[in-house]
Design goal:
233 residues; alpha/beta; Rossmann fold; DNA polymerase, domain 1; six-stranded parallel sheet; two-stranded antiparallel ribbon
Length: 233
């Protein structure tokens, strides 16, 4: 029997930065009089991201207490570390605000090729869908601008809930919004810690989306979102 409800992570699962984080950072910095190599910035971004344990959630078992203020401050610190030579900017705060707001726009994001085919097929089968993501208020604008709103009954962002994945509270918020029980729900995401282990501990059926085809043992993994059609046929 098909899963009654499928929740999806957002970034890295349904869509990704476009054309890259480094490109957007470099183009915006150039507008503020700072010339940097996009590839260098891209590497610096990923290096600093991993130093901060892969994101706001930090894969803490209970999730991290969060809010719009906390998440914006986290991003400010990350961008500051990426552009370590802050003296190059006449006004770093103005640059950061423009960059932060820019990532609320669809132009900085691109749907994966498998996203719409999977969502269309699932909706045609009457599948109920939702989003649970470690994100701030910008998520709601991105989902709407990318044309995804009609597919999802609810969009849960960590900053609005006050807890990030893998904590149980954010999954409970999704279940409450859909008036569902965990055993009747699936969660699909690209993070082994936040999505797969977090969902599993909260009682949902976890599925890992890994388009790079890494090898995992004893883990339900897909190379494409369209694999859901066979997994829960």
């Amino acid at each position: 029997m098909p899963a009654k409800i499928i929740f999806f992570d957002a970034g890295g699962t349904l869509f990704r930065p476009w054309p890259s984080v480094g490109d957007v950072y470099a183009r915006t910095a150039f507008k503020h009089g700072v010339r940097v190599d996009p590839e260098v910035v891209e590497k610096a971004f990923h290096d600093k991201w991993h130093l901060r344990s892969g994101g706001i959630a930090n894969e803490e078992p209970q999730g991290r207490t969060t809010s719009e203020k906390i998440e914006r401050a986290w991003w400010y610190a990350l961008v500051r570390d990426v552009f370590h030579n802050l003296e190059a900017f006449d006004d770093f705060d103005t640059f950061f605000t423009e960059l932060y707001d820019l990532f609320a726009q669809a132009e900085c994001w691109r749907l994966y090729d498998d996203t719409l085919p999977a969502l269309d097929a699932l909706k045609a089968r009457g599948q109920r869908l939702g989003i649970i993501s470690n994100w701030d208020y910008r998520l709601f604008s991105i989902v709407k601008q990318l044309g995804l709103s009609a597919y999802f009954e609810t969009v849960i962002a960590s900053s609005a809930v006050g807890c990030s994945k893998p904590g149980a509270k954010i999954f409970e918020a999704g279940l409450a919004a859909m008036k569902a029980t965990a055993e009747n729900c699936v969660h699909v995401g690209d993070s082994l810690g936040d999505d797969y282990e977090g969902a599993k501990k909260s009682g949902l059926t976890p599925v890992l989306i890994d388009r790079s085809a890494r090898v995992y043992n004893d883990i339900t993994r897909m190379k494409s979102l369209t694999d859901l059609l066979d997994l829960f046929s």
